[in-house]
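re: ur question from yesterday

yeah so i grabbed the chain u mentioned. its 307 aa long if i counted rite. heres the sequnce exactly as i have it in my notes:
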Amino acid sequence: MGAPAFYLSFRFYCTREFEDFILDDWIDNKKWFDIKLLTDICGDNCSLMVNDSYGPHIRKVLNALSTICDKLLHLGRNLGGKILELLESDQDEIRVMGQWNPSMFDAAYSSKLPMGPIQKLAGFSSHNGFYFNTRTVVAVPEELLYLTPIGKWCYAAHENVSDYCMNNEGVNPTAVEVLKFFCELNTIFAQDTAAMIVQFPDRVNHPMCREVPLFRMEGFKTYMAEMKRLLENEKSPLDANLESVIPGISQWQSVNHQAVNGMRGDVSVPQNEMKEGFDNVSATAKRERETSDQVLATECGTRTAGT
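ran it thru and got these structure tokens back, copy pasting raw so excuse formatting
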């Protein structure tokens, strides 16, 4: 999610393509829905793209990297599968990710995302079904959200389109969801940028950080300091200790442990006495057996002599 957040934020900063949109523009899907996101920010960013428009550029990159691949339109289908094989992902999931058949992935191949490989690529290695990322819990101040390249227009547009949709029996749900998605990306953009600069200070010199005024404001520096504090003392709630999960349970366990140790000490006294008693009985029986053996031996000797 961080990748499209960075890409779209800087793209919209450069193009300003949605800043002048009004309600009538958003409810008319033809003005924005069919415009692909991979466009040239220096040229026309409001017309449709064709697949071959970026094919030559991909070929140049592949040639520069000495990478042989003739599938330019769906490059990820080949390279992505190889990467997942190196990550030892399940072969069935790789097949699902890289191929569209049967039946063109049930008419919508993207409807069945193989979450295992996707999570593995994202660094998700937990097997217990939970994942925690510290930067996602550092709330971005609302005033900062409204100053990002997307935030300048997405919140007002989302509110206006949502109200229009509710008052007109749910029309234009796509515009509502797309704008909601932009709002979520906007939060991720602010969080990821703050975390990135904290963890990699040299990236503050990136053109995006230099160009977008938000990142030079005192408010964002204060937010970044809070992000730094939490990242440096990162602690996942999934690793919480017993006392923080159930207050008092640690004390109860300590008292219980002491009681068990005390009981063990109390039981050890009769155990020792019982062992000593058994030892005495065993010793007495041994002496009596030795005495009996001597008596029998004496009697046998006397009878033999008389005979």
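noticed a couple things. The chain has a mean pLDDT of 76. also The longest helix spans residues 249-306.
anyway ttyl
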